[in-house]
Amino acid sequence: MTGAGVRVGTLYGVGVGPGDPELITVKAYRMIRECPVVAYPKKRKGGKSYAHEIVELYVNPEEKEMLGLIFPMTKDPVVLEREWGKTVEACWEALKEGKDVAFVTEGDPNLYSTFIHLARLMRELHPEVPISSIPGISSVLGAAAALDIHLADGDEQVGIIPATADKEAMRQAIEHHDTIVFIKVAKVLDPMLELLEEMGLGGKASVVTKVTSPYELVWRDARELKGQELEYLSLMVVSK
């Protein structure tokens, strides 16, 4: 409760899938229809995120309070604290009035999602806010479908790893799993391809960009991409 006995609204993290509007769950659909406020990641340079595009197919924006949130793309701790504080307070303005807020996110809200940090900071600054999440289909699962491969069977092990420039860490990830999904691979694509060649796995990697969306691109042999630049929403699947 907050001032004058008003109920505090609930913050929902709602996964709306990796890009295909049909890959939204029935529960996610109901949640964005019922919540009076729909929050979504807003791009600084215009254009709409997949999550925003998907939501507008299922609800009339004029009937909702649409709350565009900008998430800082920086490692500067001062900027991060300031901008994240603004994001949390923007949600709090609606929540303290008793309005439920559905924060829509691509994929799943609890797997490498901006909702994770949003929820964590909301708990710190406004612990009275109830927080719940609605699972969504991850791009990892979308990639397996696009490539027509299985991720794990029986006792096989699968890893979901953010690709980094730490060559030894990437080598260990490959060695210790039967299948590895490297997310955020665009920024280190060539070093990853070089490592795979060193390990004799050059022909075992595939790449998918903007999976399940109308803009999806698939390279079944990642070696075709050497020297090229990829979109940020790209992942690599290494299946040994």
Automatic annotation (TrEMBL):
Originating gene: cobI
Pathway named in the protein's UniProt entry: Cofactor biosynthesis; adenosylcobalamin biosynthesis
Protein family (similarity comment): Belongs to the precorrin methyltransferase family.
Domain Tetrapyrrole methylase, residue spans: 10-220
UniProt enzyme class: transferase
Record Pfam families: TP_methylase
InterPro entries, sorted: 4pyrrol_Mease, 4pyrrol_Methylase_sf, 4pyrrole_Mease_sub1, 4pyrrole_Mease_sub2, CobI/CbiL, CobI/CbiL/CobIJ_dom
GO biological process terms held by the UniProt record: methylation
UniProt entry keywords in alphabetical sequence: Cobalamin biosynthesis, Methyltransferase, S-adenosyl-L-methionine, Transferase
Species: Paenibacillus cucumis (ex Kampfer et al. 2016)
Signal peptide residue numbers: none
A GO molecular-function descriptor: precorrin-2 C20-methyltransferase activity
EC number(s) stated in the UniProt entry for this protein: 2.1.1.130
Protein name: Precorrin-2 C(20)-methyltransferase
